[in-house]
Amino acid sequence: NQNPNPYGSSGSVSSSSVPTAASQQWQPQPQMAIPNMHQGQGGSNAAPAQQQQQQQAPGTPAFWNPAVASSIAAAAMSGGTNNPDAMFNLAQQAGHTFLDQGTARMIPGLERIMRELRVYFAVDNSYVKSKMLRVLFSFFFKRWKRIEEYNSDPQGTGQKYALPTSDDNALDLYIPSMSLVTYVLLCALCYGTAGEFEAEVMPDVMTKCIIILILEVLAFRLGFYLMQAPTSFMDLFAVTGYKFLGLTVNMLVGLFLGLALNTGGMGHKGYYATFLWTSSAASYFMLKFLANNIPSVTASTGPKRDVMVLVFAGSQFASMWFLGQTKVLN
User: In a 3-state reduction of DSSP, which class is residue 148?
Assistant: First the structure.
């Protein structure tokens, strides 16, 4: 029988009886370094993963930064209690980030278009009122020369004239676009009051207006090209789009007189009386604006500058006559 006691009779430990694994178990083990969790944010032992999360990958727009997303989420949670304007401010910041910090570059050409359009929508209430009076009552204004103001913006918008907020003779796209939408809605209202409204009325009127506007801009651009006078498509869309303000006034007067005096075709009479004024004002506006802003020296082999200015001015009368919707007026 084997003695289960590994110790000898004298009580001493036998070196052959102790397992090797047990002797290795009691050897001192190296300890892992425990990071200091209470270290400040500016310490040198910051986690690399956290640094990689906060840093953007090359070419990644700042708009998709996780830090921005977490800030928006935090503002959404505290927006109704401490800071009601937090979401508005962050939305504004996100919009600037979208336009200025590279997200718009994800769509080819979008950034350049947005920067060009920004100049034509830099308007205020004072400019809008003054411009509407200048278009509708152009006979009473004397100054038509635009203020030249070269812009040293490093982004390079190419703007060499003063903004609409600084010059009443500046061109904008706010009044033409709003006038076009208002004119289409007024035409739909006239069709409705006459009992002839259909679902195709608004698309048909809008399509007709846009097609005429594009054809007119292309004709203007061809004339400027033959004269070798520099211009931009945005300027042409703006200066030819002011006619929709006069068309809106025409339809508004015709609709009001047709409903108020429902006898003798007062709607038609009021429309055409107003049309004579607004179309003449629009033509005079085009005449004076182009005469003061087209270079006095043009190509000797191209069309005469004065003749082209008169043709451009007369086109406003013709296009406003063609775009009128008088068949539904009383």
Answer: strand
Greatest extent of the chain over all pairs of C-alpha atoms, in Å? 139
Structure tokens at 241: 């789009």
* Residue 161 backbone dihedrals phi, psi, to 5 degrees: -115, 160
**pTM, to two decimals:** 0.67
Please count the other Cβ atoms lying within 10 Å of the Cβ belonging to residue 165: 13
What's the CA gap between 318 and 274, in Å, rounded? 15
pLDDT in tens, 229-258: 888 889 999 999 999 999 999 999 998 988
Q: Is 7 helix (H, G, I), strand (E, B) or coil?
A: strand
Alpha helix positions (H), 121-242: 125-136, 174-193, 201-227, 233-241
Q: What is the pLDDT of residues 1-34, one digit of tens each?
A: 445 554 444 444 444 444 444 444 455 555 555 5
The number of C-alpha atoms within 13 Å of 272 and in the hemisphere containing its C-beta is 8
b/e map of 77-101 (b: 16 or more CB within 10 Å)? eebeeeeeebeeebeeebeebbbee
- Report CA-CA distances (Å) from 324 to 159, 194, 274: 35, 16, 12
- The percentage of residues in the chain with a pLDDT greater than 90, rounded to a whole number, is 36
pLDDT of res. 59: 47
Angle at the Cα of 222 from the Cα atoms of 216 and 225, rounded to 5 degrees? 140
Contacts for 101-106 with beta carbons within 8 Å, 24 or more apart? 101/61, 101/62, 101/63, 102/61, 102/62, 102/63, 103/61, 103/62, 103/63, 103/64, 105/61, 106/61
Confidence of residue 319 (pLDDT cuts 50, 70, 90): very high
Which two structure tokens, joined as six digits, stand for 95?
């919009």
Give CA–CA dist 209/3, Å, rounded.
112
Cα torsion at 112, 235, 224, 183 (round to 10°)? 120
pLDDT tens across 253-268, in order? 998 988 888 776 788 8
CB 251 within 8 A of CB 258: no
Written in H, E and C, the secondary structure of 75-124 is HHHHCCCCCCCHHHHHHHHHHHHHHHCCHHHHCCCHHHHHHHHHHHCCCC
